[in-house]
Amino acid sequence: MNRISGKRSLGDSIFSIPNGIFMLLVMVVTLYPFLNTIAVSFNNGLDTIRGGIYLWPREWTLQNYISVFQNPNLTQAAFISVARTVVGTVVQLFCTAMLAYVLSRKEYMFNKLVTTLFVITMYFSGGLIPGYMLIKQVGLLNSFWVYIIPGLIGVFNMIVIRTYIQGLSEGLIESAKMDGAGDFRIFLRIVLPLSKPVLATVALFIAVGQWNSWFDSMLYTAGNRNLTTLQYELMKLLSSSTSQGGTVNVDQYKNVTNMVTPVSIRAAITIVTAMPIVVLYPFLQKYFVTGLTIGGVKE
């Protein structure tokens, strides 16, 4: 037995060496673009043009971030991005969870039919032009609520939450009904507290989607600069850089000095837009395995 366990330990050790090297390479390849962008964002803009910036700034400066935050358009865009992320996440999560609870109840005779109709919308849509016309007819153009109402229900998220709720103890719900609790009270007092893992997971999905979204800003709020978002501003900056062969007109930024260049400005905006999600993710990571495993698999 000792020999066998010794051989296994030796084999595990031999395997762990190339496996560790491989995982280290994967980590380096994954982290390098992000770390390089951070280094460029803190480096002198003119010095960045020379190249050779990898993981550490050669000439430290905060001018890139000062130029970004002194732009009133970007400040307003940051406010709108935060507002749509917070409001959109809370409202969509609550509505999606409420629908998931209804469709998880066996006594609801149309749950399979309604679920099927919702699933169909995952594969087929009305198209971009009909969708735009609908948004216009209901008066959501150039309105903040165009970021919230059209995505009020996420079908994939609804299915994940519904599957999780179906795995909860039916006895708890039946006991609550015997005590006179209605469905809405059961949903608030029993289902939601017991569904924290899957709700946290879905909340992160929704928050990332809201924060990174820019296409709806371009389509529905382009006529109102007060409703622009950070991601849309970043997209315009990157598109301008591509169309001008790598140069960007940075005259739109206040206090632009010889320390600021298009490359450094892009790096700073990229970090500003990515950092909130990077900071939020570790707090919700612990719910991922439980939420997706129980919410995504049902016997």
UniProtKB/TrEMBL annotation:
It comes from the Bacteria. The keyword Transferase does not apply. It is found in: Cell membrane. One of its GO terms (biological process) is transmembrane transport. The chain crosses the membrane at residues 21-42, 77-101, 113-132, 144-165, 186-208, 263-284. CDD domains: TM_PBP2. Belongs to the binding-protein-dependent transport system permease family. This is Carbohydrate ABC transporter permease. It comes from Paenibacillus barcinonensis.
